[in-house]
Each structure stands twice: as structure tokens, then as C-alpha cells.
Amino acid sequence: MNEEIRSILRDHARLPMDVDRLAVESDLYQAGMTSHASVNVMLALEDHFDVEFPDRMLTRSVFESIASIAMSLEELHVGAAA
Amino acid sequence: MHSERMHTMALRIGIDLVSVDAVRESVAVHGEHYLARIYTEREVRDCTTPAGPDPERLAARFAAKEAALKVLRPGEVGVPWPEIEVLRRPGGWVELELSGTAARLAADAGISELSLSLTHEAGFASAVVIAAGALQ
User: Fold this and answer.
1) Residue of chain B minimizing CA distance to A45
2) What counts of helices (H) and strands (E) characterise chain A?
């Protein structure tokens, strides 16, 4: 799942760096992701994994890292092979 | 001379800056999914010109929502963006209207007044929100 998340970050997070160089725990906001870009990441994740992030998950910390995104997707019952 | 009430008033300030190009791209890539998730129907109406949704106006509203989140300080509480709505008044100024969780956060924080100012120039839109009240 992390590779799919990286691919979405590459296309939508507007990071000023190579997404492949990010550790799964790296802070995406510190890496340069704006709050507006995080919305694009959320929308792309929803499209790709066919889920909808519920209101309670619309927090900064959910989209903070590859690991936190993966954990949230698992909570939404997205399996390893989406 | 200050009244007793003024001594107990406190302020919070929030500011945000958004790239108009980033909003233009979001509208192009995500279309209705983006608009419906972030803006209210009234906001989309206020931002729509004969040429379609105006990214400059949308960017100013997104900046307002983020600036408002900075004064609401939601922490781990999720706030859907449409719950922070920018209303355009006939006189030309704008105001914030909160609903749902956003309104509850404001009430819990002791915020009794919110003031908003928007601007855009050179590809960026910016918003400043001031919250006042007997803040917790």
C-alpha cells in the first residue's frame, strides 16, 4: 500500500523533493506539503482506494506521513492489494 | 478607560496563504469532488462566473477556512471544510459562519466574535481571521 500512497503523493502533494526519498514516518508538512495540497492527496486517495474519509478523520495528523495515511486507510478497511 | 469586560476579552489570530494555480489545478483534476468536499453551495455560487468556478475567489475562501482552523485549534477533532463558510455581504465585505463541529469548537473555546479579511494578488490569495471572546 505504501507504494500506491507514494505514487499519489508524487502526483498530488506538490512536494519540492523526490517522494522516494521520504521515509514512511517523514512529516509531509515539514517536507513542504501545504494544507491545500493535502486536500488533493485526500481526494486522490479517495478516488484510488474507493473510500471516503469520514469527518472524524479530517485532521492534520491523518495526512502527516505515509505511515499515518496507511494506518487510516487500514482503518477504512483498505487491504494491502487495492 | 477600560471596562471590566474589555479586560476579560482575548484575541486569537489566524492567517493563511494559498496559491491560485494550485486551486485552479484542483478544480481541473478533481472537479465536483473537490468543490463539494471543501465549499458550500453558496460559496460555489459566489465564486462562479460565466466562465466557470473562479480559482482566485475559491483560493481566498480556502485560505479563510484554514485561517479559521488556526484560531479554532481543532487538534485531533476533524472539521469538514464546509462547516467554515465565507459569506459575502451586500456591502462587499465578508463574514464567517460556522456550523457543526466548527461552531462547537468555537463555543467551547469561548470565541464570541470572528472577523475575516481576504485579499488576492499576483497568484496568491490570503485570509486573516481574528477571533475574540473570553477565550479558554
Assistant:
1) B30
2) 3, 0
